[in-house]
User: Fold these one by one.
Assistant:
Number 1:
Amino acid sequence: MSDTLTKEKTQQGRISKEDVLDFLHRNPDFLNTHPELYDTLSPPKEKSGDKGVVDFQHYMVKRLREDRQDVLESAREIVETTRTNMSNQARIHGAVLALLEARNFEDFIRTITIDFAALLDVDIVSLIIETDTDSIPHINIPGVRVMPPGTIDMSMEKNAIVLQAHITGLVELYGSGANLVKSQALLRLDIAHGIPPALISFGSSNPEMFEDGQATDLIVFLGSVIERSFCAWLNVPDA
């Protein structure tokens, strides 16, 4: 109730029901601007047949229904997010197990560049190695590509992982499969001291499969496993 009304009635005595009714008639939007009053008002059991009588119970029930709908919608989102997280976790676990089952170094590389696409539900995976030559000795496997030194730092801007949505895939990363890529995750690999920087690019035809702001803990974990596996296969200290 307005300060003016309160001051006037305080000076004159107690505020009557007629004063309240008169104030509400002159301020029909009062309850709209003070919806918290619905929580304290006691509504009539049934709506009166008289025209002009407001059915507070109707509005309170409507508000409860809206609140319930909000809660249900939030619950659905939580359940959907949980299911997605569990599915992603299962895929990462499957990829890690596939790495551990590699019988030799070439099999290990094929797991990354070939098997990961199906295991992680993406369209194409590339392993990028920085080198000042046109090829990598002893590695002639599809999906392994070379780039000049410094390219990864330039592309990643010192980030360990970059997620990008609604893009056009680069031929330098995906070769002839670049036209399929509409979103991607770029994962830096720091294998060990003396080993050239490397990058794994995961490309998807779904333009929103990877986008900035998504959680990256699972894919970063996968990157850590790959780095340690590289060290084991190359017989170098884990750095």
Number 2:
Amino acid sequence: MPEFLQKILASTREDLEARKLALSLAQLKERVSGDRPRRLLTRAVSSPGISVIAEIKRASPSKGPIRPELDVAGIASAYESAGAAAVSVLTEERYFKGSLDDLRAARAACGLPLLRKDFIIDSYQVWEAAEAGADAVLLIVAALSAEELVSLRQEAEAAGLECLVEVHSLEEMERAAAAGARLIGINNRDLRTFEVSLRTTTDMMNHAPEGVPIVSESGIRGAADVSMLANAGVNAVLVGETLMRSEDPGNALRQLLDYER
């Protein structure tokens, strides 16, 4: 496991223990409504053409501050109006400067499927996501054992959530498939060097499990990238930094979706 990932997981465990002391898992589950609307991320990214999961993020470990001060509700609403299939919200606090409150604000502002993007390592975080209004959670294969991956996927299903299972290599793709992943994200960023190449996605597409939608993550800079990935058979792209650095994220999203021009 890359040192960077080890460091984030250590802080995640530390922060998680503090939250568990403040509110037990049983109490957290009581807050989750059993009749919440089902907004299916898998369905949203399986429409004809290529879809965009538009991300809300304030910072990243590799790039530092990106958009520290932002109107989460305003951007989520703008993404929905611009044609996003879903919205991803960074909730990790120390390195990405996000929070569950950002997720709640996005939920109040738009009706799209919401992905809680974080370093999910414990069932408690799955129920936090459900309580805050998420429809799906990110599970990173590199951060989890085979048993943890299956257990968290099952816990998510129990909470009424879907999972975007993130991989960085063919070996991780095989592990995702073995764990029963129904939606796979290929991250184009090397977690050891932070280098990004869209070839990571194109090289791995032929090895994707049959019938499982594929999302390409990281490094999508413009409509030409979206067009190339669409031609490679990708179902969706997850775009964060490109949109967050734009003066008008909604308009930037429209330009990405205009990839066929």
Number 3:
Amino acid sequence: MAKNAMRICAVSDMHGNLNFKVPEADLLLIAGDLCPAMHSAASCVHMQQDWLHSAFRFWLLDQPVTEVVAVAGNHDWIWETSPQMIPELNTNFHYLEDDDISILGLKIYGTPVQLPFNDWAFNREEKQIQKYWDNIPEGLDILLLHSPPYGILDESHHSNYPPKRIGSESLLKKIKEVRPNVVVFGHNHGEHGIVEQDGIKYINASLLDERYNMSKEPIIIEI
């Protein structure tokens, strides 16, 4: 490890499943879809409130990490429709919604929005979503998203449907303009992994497969 390197663990798309091991790290990044969910906000915000207050809060206490930074995803209704119901979480948990944070010497910007998918939380049409990407600043160490950029680890591979790219083209354009060092996302369960293009490291940190089985491991990087 390089001198003073930061050890970072990235996860996404747990969907309420906390049965996985987080390696020791300085920083845990969660790229959305933390919570268990159903298909409407009304049917699950109370469930998500209870889960965050109990299972998730106590799980956080046990993780071998110093700080946690997260964005919501399309399953995380409570953050979009009922933020007043979100319980107080651990002091080392930091939620980002179209905002940035400087932490452990790193500058991180996070946003939960993604293109339409079954009319779930934080869905935005391509013509609307551009204004969210416009807020992404330059000079970032990490860009934390739920949405993948178009063409990068964004192809779904569900056995019941033909392969389809679900990333945002305007997001990819913005990333190429502002050039963060690392881009972390989830949403697409079909292409977990890391690729590097033009000096930018892209991480799809989804832990579940297309059938919502826990089949992947958290991704560790050092920067």
